[in-house]
Amino acid sequence: MLRCRIIGALSMVFLLVLPCAACKARKGAPKDTQAEGKATINLKSITGINESQMFEEVRRVSLLPKAVRDQVGGMADSDQPFNKTDFVVDSRLPMRQLIVAGVSKKYCIVSYWQGGRALFVKTSIFELTDGSAKIIWVSSSKAGFNIRELKELVESGRMNNDLRPRGLQPTPPAW
């Protein structure tokens, strides 16, 4: 009888301690969020000029430059609900949700989910000048999910520009 109680108690301790130990082992050493949240991105495939900018990762709409926020209108943060389809569940929710953005002194790259007839990803690039934001690139089929993926996407040249060719008046994106 005593043996059963001891085995039962040890089993309970084992069941309570093992998940905590596994959780700590899986997390590993704390990561340097400063280094992970920044990237130097060469914008040659976007601007045609061999220029690199230091971008800082942004995951909150409120941290985007005001001029960009004014242009994108309603957009949910990455952990907030939004209307994913044209079947609007809650009219107070936006139709877009931020995935990740990269902000430099001169540019802002924004990847986000766009709800509507179908849920898809978009990446928009804005040129920032004197407190204003000019949209220079929109890709309706590619997105980055962190700053490193944004860097790879922009530098690879695999991102189509869905704005009209330069010289023609660009059609405003369907925000």
Provide key terms for this protein.
globular; 2 domains; 175 residues; alpha+beta
In what range is the share of β-strand residues?
A: 25-35%
The major sheet is characterized as: 6 strands, antiparallel
How many domain units?
2
Mind telling me the C-alpha Rg? 22 Å
Report the strand count: 6
Tertiary shape: globular
The run of helices and strands is: HHEHEHEEEEH
Helix percent reads 25-40%
- The chain-level mean pLDDT equals 80
Number of helices: 5
Low-confidence stretches: 2-34, 167-172
Q: How are the strands of the largest sheet arranged?
A: 1-2-3-4-5-6
Spatial gap, N to C terminus:
70 Å
In terms of structural class, how would the helical and strand content be classed?
A: alpha+beta
In short:
The chain has 175 residues and is an alpha+beta fold. It has helices at 2-27, 33-36, 44-47, 66-72, 147-156, and strands at residues 38-42, 52-58, 96-103, 107-114, 120-129, 132-139. The longest helix is centred in the first third of the chain and has 26 residues, at 2-27.
